[in-house]
Amino acid sequence: MDKTLIVTNDFPPRPGGIQAFLHNMALRLDPERLVVYASTWKRGSEGAQATADFDAEQPFTVVRDRTTMLLPTPRVSRRAAGLLREHGCTSVWFGAAAPLGLMAPALRRAGAKRIVATTHGHEAGWAQLPASRQLLRRIGEGTDTITYLGEYTRSRIAAALTPQAAARMVQLPPGVDEKTFHPGSGGDAVRERLGLTDRPVVVCVSRLVPRKGQDTLILAMPRILREVPDAVLLVVGGGPYAGELRKLTAETGVADSVRFTGPVPWAELPAHFGAGDVFAMPCRTRRGGLDVEGLGIVYLEASATGLPVVAGDSGGAPDAVLDGETGWVVRGGPAAVAADESADRIVTLLGDPELRRRMGERGREWVEEKWRWDLLAEKLKTLL
């Protein structure tokens, strides 16, 4: 029986979008034909216990390396090759092409017949720097297929590959569980708990890092409040930018109209999306194009929940929006510059219930047509 070996650093319980992508795909493959080789989430007894508990719940085999970050070293390559032979795996899926895809030749020698490497946002950054560009080229030569999220990442990564490897690229974005993210996901209960029952809510669900644009939304709030005085910005998530954002709300004078939830368990995220009337995350590109949004699955989760979205123009984020149909794409530049455009779009949506309804319904329809996990998992099975 042919089996697949997934080699990845990005796997739960480590949090993040790539981790959720891989786990959702893995759950839709045959568990009897799947082995996951992953790094350890974090050191210490608490991290070890969380990892052990998570692994025990999975229907497939999970093998953890002792390190918290797998690198394509000789030791890791030998371990991966040993697992490939031990479990009779004939195909390999690198959960993130860079840098682990550099192990492809070693796994080919160990018996892998099909090797697929998935790219995300950071590989587009690799493609811009001479040294990492050459490594990306080697990964393309060593694999059968490199997958990409959307046109933005495809065009940049393809430029670093040989023409033959670029021609083998296939789109494989993350999907949305439309049964989990839906209009009746429990948003009313979240609103009631937070005291927001009768207020128009702009919700942003994401890690709190500068690229995501929560600061743009805070700077947009004075303009929004002039038009919609009882509006509130609900910022869902945790991250290193939290302190700066809280400080900015005070400096901007909108602290009473911005709520921070902090980190929220994954199971509660659908209800927090549902607490909003509008979803907004005006993400921006930073560091000369090295820090970009690969796709922005949160826009699609919001669409599945029936919300119109306001997205930034960073990287592949526009691929997750039908501009003018499921929401709008706005400029995601410096916060002080981008705030006015975000405010304009948000005010328009908050003031027009019919427009919100129409865009939300179209977004839900689009997710069901194109972005369901089961459709994308079938595509992965074919590639493997």
TrEMBL record:
Q: Where does this protein act, in terms of pathway?
A: Phospholipid metabolism; phosphatidylinositol metabolism; Lipid metabolism
Gene Ontology CC terms, in alphabetical order: membrane
Which InterPro entries has this protein been placed in?
Glyco_trans_1, Glyco_trans_4-like_N, Glycosyltransferase_grp1
In its keyword annotation, does this UniProt entry include Lipid metabolism? yes
Glycosyltransferase subfamily 4-like N-terminal domain boundaries: 15-178
GO MF annotation, one = initiation-specific glycolipid 1,6-alpha-mannosyltransferase activity
Protein family (similarity comment)? Belongs to the glycosyltransferase group 1 family. Glycosyltransferase 4 subfamily.
Name-wise, this protein is phosphatidyl-myo-inositol dimannoside synthase
